């Protein structure tokens, strides 16, 4: 990046400041980004001046160190490849840190085992989430994507473009659930939020042949499956729990089980 301003764009796609192992490299990287954002050159002279104005030149190793960096790499042509190496090493360091924290949690044994396992999974997930996080994009790119989506919707002649919820009036307003959305259903306890969410999954998979996954921290797998069959077969849930089913109920239950089994990858994730 110090050799060529054109290399900055290639590096930005792969590396963030926190990915650098040496702290002063992060300081230099941030100074280069600031210059690049303002359309300024990113050579040694301008970066030195930028660091001096910010009072960070000593933290960056001084002007002599910046000149040393330009002599280490003979060309800026491979900047993108070098950036990938930096990013990969950063992920590996975060993996080591996460492993250390997981080991410490295991030895400390503070709290419920289930909570410790969930925390350990969250540590690992946070690594991949940072790696896959979407960065800023120019507004023109976002507008282009929006226009493409509008044109695709127009080509469907008003038909559903998202995932149906099973509630026709809601689907008319939203045109279904769409990728990238986070839908929050809020209500007081015992108001039917989980039942509503299960209805969404049921509409997607059983009614419209779209895969769905249902996560729950309050119901076990059998409970989720029982509620699903109750709603789909129109059999009162209390009759299923008590085992007071009539012969025609068993027939409807068998037919419902077949429809659920044929649904694409309908699955539940809950405590056992």
From TrEMBL:
PROSITE patterns: SF4_HELICASE (PS51199). Pfam families: DnaB, DnaB_C. InterPro entries: DNA_heli_DnaB-like_N_sf (IPR036185), DNA_helicase_DnaB-like_C (IPR007694), DNA_helicase_DnaB-like_N (IPR007693), DNA_helicase_N/primase_C (IPR016136), P-loop_NTPase (IPR027417). It is an enzyme of class 5 (isomerase). SUPFAM superfamilies: N-terminal domain of DnaB helicase, P-loop containing nucleoside triphosphate hydrolases. It catalyses: ATP + H2O = ADP + phosphate + H(+). Keywords: ATP-binding, DNA replication, DNA-binding, Helicase, Hydrolase, Isomerase, Nucleotide-binding. Its EC number is 5.6.2.3. Residues 156-272 form the SF4 helicase domain. The keyword DNA-binding applies. Belongs to the helicase family. DnaB subfamily. PANTHER family: REPLICATIVE DNA HELICASE, REPLICATIVE DNA HELICASE DNAB. This is DNA 5'-3' helicase. It comes from Naasia aerilata.
């Amino acid at each position: 990046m110090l050799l060529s301003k054109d290399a900055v764009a290639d590096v930005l796609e792969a590396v963030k400041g926190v990915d650098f192992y040496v702290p002063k490299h992060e300081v230099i990287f941030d100074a280069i980004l600031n210059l690049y954002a303002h359309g300024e050159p990113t050579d040694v002279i301008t970066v030195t001046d930028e660091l001096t104005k910010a009072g960070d030149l000593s933290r960056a190793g001084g002007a002599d160190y910046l000149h040393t960096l330009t002599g280490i790499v003979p060309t800026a042509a491979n900047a993108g490849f070098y950036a990938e190496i930096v990013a990969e090493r950063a992920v590996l360091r975060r993996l080591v840190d996460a492993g250390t924290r997981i080991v410490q949690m295991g030895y400390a044994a503070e709290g419920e085992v289930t909570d410790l396992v969930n925390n350990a999974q969250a540590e690992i997930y946070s690594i991949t989430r940072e790696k896959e996080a979407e960065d800023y994009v120019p507004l023109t790119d976002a507008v282009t994507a929006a226009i493409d989506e509008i044109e695709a919707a127009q080509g469907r002649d008003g038909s559903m473009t998202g995932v149906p919820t099973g509630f026709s009036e809601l689907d008319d307003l939203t045109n279904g659930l769409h990728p990238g959305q986070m839908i929050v259903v809020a209500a007081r306890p015992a108001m039917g939020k989980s039942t509503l969410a299960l209805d969404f999954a049921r509409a997607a998979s059983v009614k419209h042949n779209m895969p769905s996954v249902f996560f729950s921290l309050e119901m076990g797998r059998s409970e989720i499956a029982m509620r699903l069959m109750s709603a789909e077969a129109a059999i009162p849930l209390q009759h299923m729990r008590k085992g007071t089913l009539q012969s025609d109920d068993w027939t409807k239950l068998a037919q419902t089980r077949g429809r659920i089994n044929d649904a694409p990858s309908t699955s539940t994730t809950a405590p056992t």
